[in-house]
Amino acid sequence: MENTFKEIHGGRYIPQYIDYPSMMKRHIRKHVSYMQPIYEAISNSLEVTEGKDDTITIRSFLHPSTFEGKYLFSSIQIEDTGIGFNKENFERLQRLFDESKNCNNFGTGRIQFMHFFDKTDIYSVYKEDGKKYRKRIVLSAKFYQQHKGVIWESAPEEVSYDTPLGTKLSFFYPLSGDDQNKYDELSSETLYDKVLLHYLSRFCIRKANLQTICFETYINGVLDYSKNKLITGETIPPADMAEDFILSYQVYDKANKDFVCTNKKEHFTVNSYLLPSNILKKNEVKMTSKDETVETTSLDMSFLDKTSRIDDKYMLCLVSSDYFTKRDDDERGKLLLKSKQDIIKTNDIFEMESSHIFVEDIRHEVVNKITTKYPQIRKVKEDFESELERLVEYFALDRNIIDTIGYKYGETTESFLRRYKSYNAEISAKKDANMSIMLDSLRTLNPIEKNFKQKFNAKVREISKLIPEKNRAEISTYLASRKAAMTMLEYIINRQLEIQDGESRTRRDKERIIHELLFKQRTTNAMESNLWILNEDFIHYKGVSEGRLRDIRINGELLLREDLTEEEEQQLKSHHHDELGKRTDVLLFPEEHKCIIIELKSATADVTKFLNQVVDYAGLIRQYAKDKFEITNFYAYLVGESFNFESIIRHNPNFVESPYLDYVYIPDQKIYGGKHREKGTMYFEVLKYSSLLERAKIRNSVMIDKLLENYDSN
Predict the structure, then answer these.
(1) What is the percent of the chain where pLDDT is above 70?
(2) What is the CATH number of the domain that holds 84?
(3) 269 and 180, same structural domain?
(4) Which whole-number Å values give the CA distances from 602 to 516, 613, 638, in the listed order?
(5) Does any domain span residue 96?
(6) DSSP label of 164
(7) Is 420 inside a domain boundary?
(8) Dihedral, CA atoms, 688, 689, 692, 694, nearest 10 degrees?
(9) Which domain holds residue 259?
(10) pLDDT at residue 616 greater than cutoff 90
């Protein structure tokens, strides 16, 4: 077995009019994968052999290192039974960017040979003019400086006609220490796994007529039979799923500022395979070009990372199409695929006017096929999307930005938000700059001019155009939500909800109807509540709805003391009730040492029965709050509907009727602070839902009426 590089004698160097050092540095750069030169060689062997009567043998030559059980790379050899380097093939070897092999093969694979290895040694037997010849060819970038070429060839040697055709290509001397370390690990088992995955699409397509592919490992030139591996048509697993879909090319429509479909279409095929964990380590989706998996381009399928095995195997999904071959560049395995955002961001007129199939549309169809086939993957995807939706709603995120920057499964919220804010800051800066220019242009207006109003309105329209359409839609949704909430409250007050029919509902249920509308029970996000009906400021405060006093937290820390004395514990449970287990309807904390208490009663409740309840809540918080959270000022609101203010004042003469006659209040209610704290103070107000509703309508009427103006006119 020829496993040692032989010195060059005789022959000739092939002069070429190509500046290889410059080309390798600037144009055809080193591939990111150390396997690429090997794949290039195997691909060449696959292309020059015809089928199952041919053999491709891949040999790893290793030698022992000084460390026991560790081996070092000597060379790797790919031998085939193809047609060899006849005149036509050798001439093609000398040319770059030669498309005569079709399939977008430009002859740049040999450049990867020289990026990774000092020498590529080739022995080939070929047929020419009815005779057979043997030739040696050596490739090395180091030849260029002296010989102005990178190829050496020996003189052809005629051999007997029964000599088998074929080519034996060997790689020697990795140029990088990192690559050397990686090649040291290349046993026949490792190569088998990598080659099977890389060419699985091709192998499956040609399963019935597949070449026999052998893997051999040599230690000090001696074949280790125990490590032999074999790929044949019989070893290729059948597809677990085979589905097709069609996508239309799209072009940008300037008038509508969107992409529209053309009549031109492309066909795509999705094949999935269930492979054992010794071959595949996780569920993956890969695209293929020229019947090879594309290593450097992939679809964003990050949600697959958390998907468990399927029938104790992992899924490999291969997406193939002639479209991918068309988009393959001169560096084999790199697809030039674009997203809609790519086109818009570049603002390239040529790209805008050209038709494209977008990567996000491919992804959508592939995901649909996979999730339909595999319920386990569908569940993970649904969880993934739910988490994203939660982030979108909680942080009021822009979907368009998320589509641009991407959201990967398992990414921390902090990391994602940091990327989001960084991108948004860049976009906002551009918008702010434009907005600043427009606002600055207001200096040119003269308020005392006769046509000032017309000019002013024209400026306003220009400024409004700078507000993204999404933001305008969100404002409309925001106002519509307020209109709906006020209408719901009116229905509740007038007992017009269908759920309010009949008298069988408990007092708690009647309260809950209002409570859920104003601030969903057992939640803490006041921003998502409708407390603006009571006061616009309330939605901006930290708070809790229907929380037990002992469980309430401020900035993650419990509000009330945990070091209660035995005497205090007895006092709190003296009447067989857990006083600190009481639930307040709503508690808000606008700032340090202040607390807002809101009690929401049903529209039919007699609120006079709950006057002491509010004072009691305040007293417990005043007495038992930790020193760092000590509350000195309380603001309390008791809300109902079926009562009169005189009855409130009779129960507690300290209440004062407001000048506007729609509520009663105590401006300075004293709150007991226990033996060790002075009394606190509380502003205490009792009011009706109908009064709240009227106030809210007045505050929001102008904006909502403007929103509904066009709707009403239709």
Answers:
(1) 90
(2) 3.30.565
(3) no
(4) 12, 15, 11
(5) yes
(6) P
(7) no
(8) -100
(9) 241-374
(10) yes
Distances (CA, A) of 452 to 435, 441, 455, 667: 21, 14, 5, 48
**Angle, helices 359-373/375-395, rounded to nearest 10 degrees:** 130
Spatial CA neighbour of 434 closest among 464, 404, 475, 399: 464
Which among 355, 374, 393 is the end of a domain? Answer: 374
**Could you tell me if 34 and 138 lie in one domain?**
yes
Q: By the 8 A CB rule, do 617 and 584 touch?
A: yes
Q: H or E element: which one contains 646?
A: helix 645-651
Residue pLDDT, tens place only, 470-522: 566 667 777 888 888 898 899 889 888 888 776 556 767 788 889 999 999 98
Q: Does residue 297 share a domain with residue 218?
A: no
Residue 548: alpha-carbon gap to chain centroid:
38
In whole angstroms, give the CA distance from residue 635 to residue 598: 8
My answer on whether 208 and 190 are in the same domain is: yes
Give the number of other Cβ atoms within 10 Å of residue 357's Cβ.
21
Q: 3-class DSSP state for residue 705?
A: helix
Note whether residue 432 is domain-resident: no
| No. of helices (H) and no. of strands (E), the chain | 22, 25
| Contact assessment for residue 489 and residue 517, using Cβ atoms and an 8 Å cutoff | yes
Residues 69, 179 within the same domain: yes
pTM over 0.85: no
Question: Is 437 within the bounds of a domain?
Answer: no
Distances (CA, A) of 191 to 182, 230, 317, 466: 12, 11, 21, 57
Q: Considering 353, 374, 395, which residue would you say is the last residue of a domain?
A: 374
